[in-house]
From TrEMBL:
Protein name per UniProt: Glutathione S-transferase family protein
PANTHER family membership: GLUTATHIONE S-TRANSFERASE-RELATED, HYPOTHETICAL GLUTATHIONE S-TRANSFERASE LIKE PROTEIN
GST C-terminal domain segment(s): 84-207
Gene Ontology MF: a single term: transferase activity
Keywords (A to Z) from UniProt: Transferase
Amino acid sequence: MYKLYSMQRSGNSYKVRLALALLNAPYEAIEVDILRGESRTPEFLEKNPSGQVPLLEVAEGRYLAESNAILWYVCGGTSLAPESRVERAEALQWMFFEQHALEPNIGAAYFWLSLVKGGRDLQTHALEDWMERGYAALQVMENHLKTRAYFAAGQLTVADIALYGYTHVADRCDYDLATFPAIRAWLRRVEQTPGFVTMDWQPETEVDDQAGIAAGV
């Protein structure tokens, strides 16, 4: 069974928990509060020198960091990971986009405005840039979704999970999604997927035997 070190309110951590829930994959959740410095202890840094969550223990003493790398690992061999070469590349294209265009802007705004007390005052100088670049990323997503239900392979994939993590909390950090109807419809489609869980959801100690929608292992 996996051990997942994550923070409940972290969008990057939530992406992994969401994928595991959709796959109905059992795991042990270990809460790491980065706001309290719990990811900077010597014990945690020995597991992940970057001091970040999420972190997945895939075998005893073997750890995998970076949320999208973890997503690709846990989703491999399931319907969440496209089979064809070009569709895999398309999914990865959107996962790279998430990390260089969406997460550094909407993710940063969410962290400082929603999680850090007094964060708005601390980051006043950065907020305008986050807004401008974040809205630009949302427009790219909106344009893509105007003619497609999902981001790759014509179905829900690991790319959608990666992008959902911070897009669904954009309205908590000053972004207005009113002018992005295709994104709002896509968010609803993701949320209607069998096995979907919210960011606040916590796993039970045992996972039932009913297979998740994507568990084509």
